[in-house]
Amino acid sequence: MDTRTALLRRIRIWIVLFIVGLVVSGVTAFPLPAEVRLLESLLQGPFAPVAEVFPGLAHWVGQIRTGLDAVEGEYPFVLYGTDWLAFAHLVIAVAFYGPLRDPVRNVWVVQFGMIACVMVVPLALICGPIRGIPFFWQLIDMSFGVFGIVPLLIVYRMIRRLEALGPKAVAVGPPPGARAVSG
To answer: Is 31 helix (H, G, I), strand (E, B) or coil?
Structure first.
């Protein structure tokens, strides 16, 4: 396997991992009330030792469950906002098909992702206190940006190395609109 092929393979593996992370993060935003009820029951059951060490966490999860139960029961339309949050994650995941197909030409998507990861931190620090989110939870929210930027930085560096190797085409399969010739 030559350098270009190996580099392209590693880039695609990292991008697929990032896409999977976005999809999982998005899909898990749909059943939020049920997930929080499950988390609360785990903190009262098998993960009770965690709740004993971090009582603030158990209290916060209980408060979230109470709020989500009220919203789900009286104002379910508010949860439509988390549906759109989930949808946004899925749409962003689709955007990463571009760099998966042609990383050099679509490096801008990776740059966009890195910018979005950086923007998570000020959003959490500004909106968290306004919404009454405990600081430890803001740290959890910020971790998505911190951990998300790591694979993107790795991919970005590899794309720049791939670009430096020259203009050889790197797209998966034939170019869009091309037909296969049968013999």
So the answer is: coil
